[in-house]
Amino acid sequence: KKQAEKAVHQKKEQSKTKCRKARRRHINLVAEFNRRQRKNIWLETHIWHAKRFHMVKKWGYCLGNSPTEKSYRACYRAMTKHCLLQDLSYYCCLELKGKENELLKQLARICSTDTGLTFQEAGCLSGRFEGSLYLYRADRYPEDMLGPVTFIWKPRDGSENRQLWIWVHPALKQDILRELKAIFQCTEPEEMCITEPVTTSVQEEKQVEVVTSLGNKRKKEDKEGEKAVPVKKIIGDGTRDPFQSYSWVSQTTGTSISDRSMEILRYRLIGPLSHSVLTETLKAASVQTV
């Protein structure tokens, strides 16, 4: 009797699970992927890495740690003879906008020429090259080092206003962002990051319930019908709460700081054929002036 009751109970539980075809529908995959990204954000290349790497959860992201196969020799061969691509999108991007003189004046307080090049280096200031340096707390060099960063200036467009992107490691982002807001006196949030909460599986089923009938295509019970396309909801990045401010402005200096993490993808190409790969991949767009 117990075995019979157990068998009936198991059958009821199994009947609730959807078939593989239903689970692999696009709308169900998006809902499932969003649910699994609530605590640790996925990169754009997550699916590719998840099939080939052991994944680890660090700094609010899900990153590939080590390959599942013996690919060290292949990677080394690609670095020395061909081209190797790395996804560095988990690095955080901080955007600064303001007058060039004001930016250089305040940024000089958190770096020093004794450690190498600074934000004022001619090649980097023109926007032709990427620079790297070590940041310190304001007027505290050589003590209280924050960490290494890389930066890129947007090329000049004839105006005194400039745009600067600073790339920092996610473990250093909060400290460096706090120091930048302090030296530029950016306290007022410019805009709020408002994102829709990710719907649960039950809500998703109610919203996009599928009606199946013999000889007819599946249709979604919404306003758009068959033309409805599910959209992936953005739930923030791994180093920022989705309901926090992501842009701040200073009324005294006129400088604004924006958190562009997970908005700008970053890839690193290593190897002698890196430039050849870029020239074959990227094509110049035709600029039309009205």
UniProtKB/TrEMBL annotation:
Q: Which InterPro entries match?
A: Pop1, Pop1_N
Residue stretches making up the Pop1 N-terminal domain: 4-98
Question: Which GO cellular component terms, listed alphabetically, does the Swiss-Prot or TrEMBL entry include?
Answer: nucleolar ribonuclease P complex; ribonuclease MRP complex
Q: Which Pfam families match?
A: POP1_N
Q: Which GO terms describe its biological process?
A: tRNA 5'-leader removal
Its protein name is POP1 protein
List the source organism: Rhipidura dahli
Gene assigned in the entry = Pop1
